[in-house]
């Protein structure tokens, strides 16, 4: 036996460096330190996808304005409806009351449901991993630090921070009150089928391509504030984020700190984009936590900071990221499989809308028909509105 052991010991072995390198690469792949790279890839991918959808939609509307006979409805992706949250919320209430998903902007409701699902289950994972506006807001803050040569981001004092953070909840309360409380089934149906909602996607495009001087000044002010204060829009003004933040308090998955393993280095709190006191929390319950897991990536002690369901069950960071994508896209893909993804607006109708977009009937009036004497409307405008609202 000793001889056999000696001979086996003399057998050539793989180089140790290669084995260690392979193990190191595998460890890096599975390590929490890969979270920032993974999140960056996700955010860039979602932003490029949104940009691609937006450019194609711009080409679609431009072709309709030129009355180009070769323009195709395929240029208009339903993905553009992800930026129609008001239409999505109205459609959601209408769906609950009638049991039928409206055919004007069905994808808007499906995207809203996907975001709500992530908020209920995975904190504000939509904001931290998917939202292109949140991605832009983060990078504006980083750019501002470099331009101003600041080693750390500017933080608003708590005496101002708390009142400012309430602004987005006031905006959310207004929309919820106006839609969920004030609008009855008749008003919901009138808004959904009305001319304004049928061109809501085009109106959104025109908001940026034909912006007024007031709109430009407001956007420039938001840009400047975002350079000074990281995530200014998301932290203080975004009603979408306020909705997900309120729902995220019900999320079973939360960042949890193991007090026995924690060495109180404070690196997690420094890495948090929302400036939350992660190092002093047992479980991060704040509505400002967007589930980015930057704190988990910064923690130097394994298992000292994890995403957990309850107090015990650990969720691997990569699984958390995958679940955010799965939950959000489950509703749009489900709608596509059920053939409730595309709007019921034909190419001919889109042409008609674009050519008459200047008429008063395309102004926002909470779904109510524009009376002949309102907003400069004429009797012919009112008659045309009724014609456009007839079922096809």
What would a concise description of this structure say?
By secondary structure, this protein is mainly alpha-helical. The chain has helices at 2-10, 16-30, 35-65, 85-98, 106-121, 125-129, 132-148, 158-181, 185-193, 195-198, 200-209, 213-228, 232-236, 239-248, 267-271, 294-298, 317-337, 347-355, 379-388; strands spanning 253-257, 305-309, 313-315. A three-stranded antiparallel sheet has the order 1-2-3.
Outline the structure in words.
By secondary structure, the chain is mainly alpha-helical. It has 2 domains: 33-247 and 324-344, no CATH class; 252-318, Alpha-Beta Plaits, CATH 3.30.70.20. It contains 19 helices and 3 strands. It has helices at 2-10, 16-30, 35-65, 85-98, 106-121, 125-129, 132-148, 158-181, 185-193, 195-198, 200-209, 213-228, 232-236, 239-248, 267-271, 294-298, 317-337, 347-355, 379-388; strands spanning 253-257, 305-309, 313-315. A 3-stranded antiparallel β-sheet has the order 1-2-3. The relative contact order is 0.14.
């Amino acid at each position: 036996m000793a001889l056999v052991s000696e001979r086996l010991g003399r057998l050539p072995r793989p180089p140790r460096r290669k084995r260690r390198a392979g193990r190191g690469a595998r460890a890096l792949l599975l390590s929490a330190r890969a979270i920032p790279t993974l999140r960056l890839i996700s955010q860039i991918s979602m932003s490029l996808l949104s940009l691609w959808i937006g450019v194609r939609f711009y080409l679609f509307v431009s072709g309709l304005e030129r009355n180009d006979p070769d323009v195709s409805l395929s240029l208009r992706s339903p993905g553009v409806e992800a930026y129609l949250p008001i239409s999505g919320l109205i459609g959601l209430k209408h769906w609950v009351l009638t049991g039928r998903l409206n055919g004007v902007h069905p994808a808007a409701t499906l995207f809203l449901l996907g975001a709500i699902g992530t908020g209920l289950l995975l904190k504000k994972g939509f904001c931290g991993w998917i939202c292109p506006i949140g991605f832009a807001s983060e990078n504006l803050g980083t750019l501002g630090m470099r331009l101003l040569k600041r080693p750390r981001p500017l933080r608003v004092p708590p005496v101002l921070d708390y009142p400012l953070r309430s602004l987005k909840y006031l905006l959310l309360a207004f929309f919820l009150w106006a839609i969920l409380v004030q609008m009855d089934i008749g008003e919901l149906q009138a808004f959904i089928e009305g001319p304004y909602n049928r061109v809501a996607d085009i109106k959104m495009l025109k908001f940026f391509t034909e912006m007024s001087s007031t709109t430009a000044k407001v956007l420039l002010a938001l840009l400047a504030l975002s350079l000074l204060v990281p995530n200014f829009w998301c932290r203080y003004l975004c009603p979408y984020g306020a909705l997900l933040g309120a729902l995220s308090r019900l999320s079973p998955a939360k960042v949890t700190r193991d007090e026995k393993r924690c060495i109180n280095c404070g690196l997690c709190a420094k890495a948090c984009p929302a400036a939350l006191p992660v190092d002093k929390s047992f479980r991060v319950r704040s509505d400002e936590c967007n589930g980015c897991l930057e704190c988990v990536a910064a923690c130097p002690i394994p298992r000292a900071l994890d995403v957990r369901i309850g107090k015990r069950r650990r969720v691997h960071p990569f699984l958390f990221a995958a679940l955010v994508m799965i939950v959000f896209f489950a509703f749009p893909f489900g709608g596509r499989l059920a053939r409730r993804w595309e709007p019921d607006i034909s190419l001919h109708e889109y042409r008609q809308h674009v050519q008459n977009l200047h008429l008063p009937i395309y102004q926002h009036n909470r779904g109510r028909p524009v009376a002949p004497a309102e907003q400069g409307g004429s009797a012919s405008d009112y008659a045309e509105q009724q014609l456009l609202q007839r079922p096809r």
